[in-house]
Amino acid sequence: MTPSEENLQRLAEDLKDDSVAVGQLGEQYPDLEGYLHEVVKEAAENGRGDYAFVVLDEMPAVPTDMRNIAQELLNMTDVDTVVLRTPVYGTIVSNEHSRAEIEAAEIVIFQDNDYVASFRWLTETLGQDPVSWGWVNAAIFAAVVAVAVFAALSFRPVKREELT
């Protein structure tokens, strides 16, 4: 279903109940909503933010409408981040995470057909501090220099008399 204005209000109300709306997919997979709700609950309990997960039954006629729908749902609810999926693709909008973080995550999450696992991955990794490669490289460089200095200081010249 691509929500009309009226259906958008119903979706927002559904999200206020348990932060998950799975549409007709819930009929095929009755446990899906419960599993997704567990991920939402774990994220909130572990201080990773308030998420909502929405599945539309069909792709909107205009693909950019996905982002508009997700943004409207974000504005109509108390969550920090809305993940919206369709059978074809999806989008993520957030008040908490940068667009760069979201776009990097979208590359991963929407290639995975396991909605629960990909959503769990998202809630566990979105917003995490990346590895500071500058400090890692500096530490490796310092270790290499220390080994080189130690090797140079350990080397003692051999006298001719010691060779015979």
Automatic annotation (TrEMBL):
Organism superkingdom: Bacteria
InterPro entries the UniProt entry points to: Rv1476-like
Residues spanning the membrane: 133-155
Alphabetized Pfam families for the sequence: Rv1476
Keywords: Membrane, Transmembrane, Transmembrane helix
Protein name: Uncharacterized protein
Organism name: Corynebacterium canis
